Amino acid sequence: MSNIHSEGLGGMAMQNKIGVRVSEIIELDVFSGCHVISGHEGLNRAVTKVNVMEVPDIMPWLQEGEFLITTAYSIKDNIAKLGEMIPVMHEIGVGGIAIKMKRYIEELPDSVIELSNALGFPIISVPLDVSFGDMITSILTSIVNNQTDLLIKIDRFNNHLKEIMLRGGDLKEIAEMIHTTVEAPVAITEELFNEYVICSDDSMKDALVPLVEAIQLKQKGKLRRVYKNQGIEELVDDLGGQEIKRLMIPIYSDDVIYGHVIIWNIDKKIAEKTLFMIEAAASLIALHATKKLSIYENENKHKIDFIEELLSDQENQRSRAAEKLNYFGFNKSKSYGVLIAKIKESTYDARMTPNNAQIIKQQSAKLVSIVEKMHRFYRGDLIYGNKSDRAIFLLGLDPYLTPAQVKLEMAKFTTELLNYAKLDGFEGKLFVGMGRSYNEVAMLYKSRQEAERSIQKLEMGTQTQSQLHFDDLGIYRILSNEVVQPELVQFFNEVLGDIVKYDREKDAELLNTLKMYYKCGCNLKKVSEEMYTHYNTVIYRMQRIKEIGKIDLSDQNVSLNVHIAVKILDVINLDTIK
Fold first, then answer.
1. CA dihedral 174, 178, 180, 185 (to 10 degrees)
2. What are 265's strand-pairing partners?
3. Distance CA 247, CA 265 (A)
4. Fewer Cβ atoms within 10 A, N terminus or C terminus of the chain?
5. Which pLDDT band holds residue 9 (cuts at 50, 70, 90)?
6. Which of 445, 473, 501 is the last residue of a domain?
7. In terms of domains, do 174 and 113 share one?
8. Residue 565: which domain range?
């Protein structure tokens, strides 16, 4: 299997589906006396409208899909100008030009004919006795008839699709309907739930299964933003030594992709109108995925409400949750620890998108997909729920495990979760915080608080670390406790308040220098290198810190207080310091 090439079938291809080709136009009765002068290779160009060219400066008003009719009167004295106009028309997507020869011009220059042939831009000679009105009427009638026929087919296809969905038909039935329509192998993928179905002859199915799975794996790494104008992607697969075109039709709704309809055009007999018909029904097919997602979200709401009550620090809420333990599969013989997986706020996709509501929605859907796969393959006791930008896990563990063993089990679970995120193209976009495990249900809220404090510490860092257990917080196990927050603010004010005030007035960088001083192990030379600041400047700043803050860093107790105050910076809002 190999992808030899790919190309988009949107844009001009869309015109092909709703218009007529130049080759069809010249078959109309009114064109019976016409002949193609040049550009024969472009007779498959699409035409969706007609225009009359009687002025030489028509270019700014030309549109894709137009077919021009002219007497060439406006350029009769400079027919070579047509050589300048044709490349522009070709670039715009004009279908071709019909010229009444022998009226104002006898023949076209060789250079114009050669250019027309090179670009595949049709030039058609029209007899003098043919009326422009008849030509325009015939072409537009042909276009309207073509569009009407297509709309009827789309309506029939959509009605059949609606019937399947209204009676609760599944993805397999939808694929079978498309398979019957195109008479070619068909697969439908649903990325959110990592599912697919294949409809084909048994002789091909074995070859298509690994191909579809590979396609799904490739698509997982993409967070695409807008699909309405994406069109159909065309690739070539090597199946059994034979090159076969693969057509990928995106299934989307509200600019969110849910999967693809994949068709292998084995005999190259699938009409573009048929593909357009299927493409037009993509939003209907997406309803199947959105219905499943709606069911999931409804179930998830009940689970997350239970989890929120169970992990609440309010006793009355925990009491309500205690009545539902059996219903949600809570194993009372286990101890439980809480893990929280949170989408990083500064992911590249969200930062680079001006209106990032859709990206956030897509990221949440991606998290659902990751969590579902984790649940499907995890063999232990697990209760979980998704909430906006995070997933909360209650991990059931052997109550006789040592704290070190519990920590190891939770780390294994986290590593597995991050591996699924990597497979889904979500590597580096999740933080996972882990709390301790508790045997008593009434104590589980502490594990949730610990997991949240671990997340907070991860968010303070460089974002290179993706997972953290509460036991590894060090001094932050104390500093991140909400109970001591007022004392921390007061302590910081007492130790470094004057430094903060001076920095605000003078923009002196004293506080940042002090932070780097402890980060570099009190080595002033390293501070100079890390801050890209002259060594003498660092010495001057440290002297100002001692003077303004009345700080003697040679005193171990004073230095410890300053170091703790610097650590407090990570858990308080500097704006609260007055």
1. -110
2. 245
3. 7
4. C
5. very low
6. 473
7. no
8. 482-576
